[in-house]
Design brief:
Layout (H helix, E strand, L loop, with lengths): L1 H30 L8 E2 L5 H8 L2 E2 H24 L6 H136 L20 H9 L5 H6 L2 H7 L4 H14 L6 H9 L5 H5 L3 H18 L10 H11 L2
Antiparallel strand pairs: 1-2
Helix pairs in contact: 1-3, 7-8, 8-9, 11-12
Length: 360
């Protein structure tokens, strides 16, 4: 039965689809300016049959016929698809069998429930008798415990009175001895306190003298020892501004593992083997050389490179006044761009220190 019903639904649905296509085709004729609603239409699917029955049809008439057929076939499809099927005899037998099993199961469950209720009632009676007996035993034990506790309480009170009396006697005897010992200790503590105060004052004076000596030694050491460079030849190349982890890996692949090897490398090879251009490689090398000069930091090296100084020798050969003018102009630009603050602007003394350190 379901197979027949499916075939009927498929045929009715296919006829509905053909009717819809026919309606759509007539709509195209209706909106065509060259044809219009009065155009005589002879459909190629059923033209011979319709021509023999009703003759030639206009587009408008054929449209209404197609639309009516669409609704008819659509309604027929819905009726076939949603019509209630007669019950299957096998399913009816199965439901009857399941109903009998459920009835038998219900009787078994009722009998089990009755037995379980009787068992619970018996257990409840047994538990009630047991707890009643336990309550009686607890009451007897409670009375015996109270009697023992009362007897122990009287004994404890007597012992307490005896102990308090003995302690009061002993305390009175030792109080005088303790007061005398405390007076002697107080006298000794006062003497130690005076000695501690004198020692603290002496230590304070000695600490001040040592601090003054340390400051003097640091100043002497600063004058005797030249300042150390901010960048050494053994430092990693990532210490240079502009070289990140990725470029550092590319340089290490070329065998450039530190700042000294970067300074002595051929910029053409760096240009060929890495992401940076030759000009950028030369700028990085110049920055590294200048930062290896004592008292020249990262911003100082960048300003010197912008001033056209790319090596230690060029910095050593500079005139102080002219270089100070260039650095001053570059520093103004850096301050406007936010790369440095007004307080970080190099002074002429610092520029002189750069030139002097470059000549060592």
């Amino acid at each position: 039965m379901p197979a027949k019903r499916g075939v009927a639904v498929w045929i009715s649905g296919f006829l509905t689809f053909l009717a819809v296509l026919s309606s759509f085709g007539t709509v195209l004729y209706l909106i065509d300016e060259t044809k219009g609603p009065n155009f005589i239409l002879r459909p190629y699917l059923i033209g011979d049959i319709m021509g023999s029955l009703v003759g030639d049809l206009s587009v408008e008439n054929y449209f209404w016929i197609s639309l009516t057929a669409t609704f008819i076939f659509l309604g027929l499809t819905c009726i076939i698809a949603y019509r209630k099927l007669p019950p299957d005899p096998e399913i009816v037998k199965m439901f009857i069998k399941v109903g009998g099993n459920l009835a038998a199961l219900r009787k078994t469950q009722e009998a089990t429930s009755t037995e379980l209720a009787e068992s619970i009632e018996n257990n409840r009676k047994t538990s009630r008798e047991f707890f009643k007996k336990v309550d009686t035993n607890l009451e007897d034990a409670k009375k015996e415990t109270l009697a023992v506790m009362e007897k122990q309480g009287k004994t404890i009170q007597k012992v307490r009175r005896d102990v308090v009396s003995t302690v009061e006697t002993k305390v009175g005897e030792t109080r005088e001895e303790m007061l005398g010992a405390l007076k002697k200790q107080e006298t000794a503590i006062r003497g130690v306190r005076r000695l501690n105060e004198q020692g603290a004052a002496a230590l304070k004076e000695q600490r001040a003298e040592l601090e003054d000596i340390r400051i003097r030694l640091e100043k002497i050491e600063e004058k005797m020892m030249p300042p150390q460079p901010r960048l050494n030849s053994q430092d990693n190349t990532e210490e240079i501004k502009g070289i990140g982890p990725r470029l550092g890996e590319e340089l290490r692949a070329l065998g450039i593992t530190n700042v000294g090897e970067l300074v002595t490398a051929d910029p053409a090879i760096i240009d060929e083997k890495t992401r940076v251009s030759r000009d950028m490689a030369e700028r990085l090398q110049a920055t590294a050389q200048l930062r290896m000069i004592p008292s020249v930091d990262e911003n100082d090296a960048e300003m010197l490179v912008d001033a056209g100084i790319t090596s230690r020798r060029e910095l050593a050969d500079q005139d102080l006044v002219q270089l100070s003018r260039k650095i001053s102009e570059i520093a103004k630009t850096y301050i406007e761009e936010g790369k440095m603050s007004e307080d970080e602007k190099p002074t002429i003394e610092e520029v002189s220190s750069w030139i002097r350190m470059a000549r060592y």
